[in-house]
Amino acid sequence: MKVKKRTFFFIFLFIAIIGLLSFRIINVLNERQQEEVQKSQIKKEIIIPVRTVLVEKGEVNSFLKVTGVVEANETVRVTSEIMGQAKEVKVQDGEEVNKGDILIVLGDEQIKIQVAQAQATLDSIQASYDKIKSGARPQEIKQAESAVLQAKINRDSAEENYLRMKKLFTEKVISKQQYEQAKNQYEIADAQHQSAQESYELVIEGAAEEDVKSVEAQVRQTRAALDMA
Questions:
Q1: Which of the two residues, 143 and 52, has the higher pLDDT score?
Q2: pLDDT at 29
Q3: How far is CA 161 from CA 152, 175, 185, 197, in A?
Q4: pTM (2 decimals)?
């Protein structure tokens, strides 16, 4: 009998525990269901305020703030027609300029030097031109005559020595080197005499027409360079 009572006791205890657990689970489920219902009701009751406006046609401006480097669509390199050291700068970096504006002022020291050099070159060429146009002076004619005379004396002397050395070489008295040396001296003296004679003729006849025109062209070019300096 005691065994049966104990068995019934455990069965009853097990049923009681199951009942309590079931009751607790049902309560928890009911509580969660009630919470969900309350949350749903709260969401339905929340009123979100809104503002309505009349739709109108217009422009929408959007601005973007960024950091970068501004580059021009077109870059123009400005140079000076003449070289020189900048004495004064009339504009600032990035300043807008117009055609005809003075950008820089060059120092005039180098320009003055260029003008003086151009003037000196013009004076020298002009003097040469005047000399050619006026013809040779008497002193120049005498100098040319003296040069021809001296060159003739040197040539005759060299010719006489050459003929003498030639005879000795034929007779095998002197070496070939001595003969060649005398021959070269004669040829040089003869060439110098011809050059002196041609120079004398140029002095007497005056400058050729093409020489005069060449110097005239040099005078014009130098004057143009002086005007540009």
A1: 143
A2: 73
A3: 14, 15, 9, 22
A4: 0.35
Q: Between the CA of residue 186 and those of 150, 160, 162, 167, 172, what are the distances in Å?
A: 14, 9, 6, 15, 20
Alpha-carbon distance values, 156 to 45, 160, 168, 169, 212 (Å): 143, 6, 19, 20, 36
d(CA 131, CA 124): 11
End-to-end, the C-alpha distance of the chain in Å comes to: 145
Calpha distance 122→79 (Å, rounded):
28
Residue 122: pLDDT band by 50, 70, 90 thresholds?
Answer: low
Residue 154 predicted with pLDDT over 80: yes
- Cα–Cα distance measured from residue 5 to residue 136, given in angstroms and rounded to the nearest whole number: 170
CA atoms within 13 A on the CB side of 168: 16
* E strands, the chain, in order: 86-89, 104-106
At 2, is the pLDDT very low, low, confident or very high (cuts 50, 70, 90)?
very low
Under DSSP, is residue 180 helix (H, G, I), strand (E, B) or coil?
A: helix
Alpha carbon distance 35, 27 (integer Å): 12
Q: In the chain, where are the structural domains located?
A: 134-228
Residue 54: Cβ within 10 Å count: 4
- The span from the CA of 175 to the CA of 165, in Å, is 10
CA dist 157 to 43, 74, 160, 163, 186, Å? 141, 81, 5, 10, 8
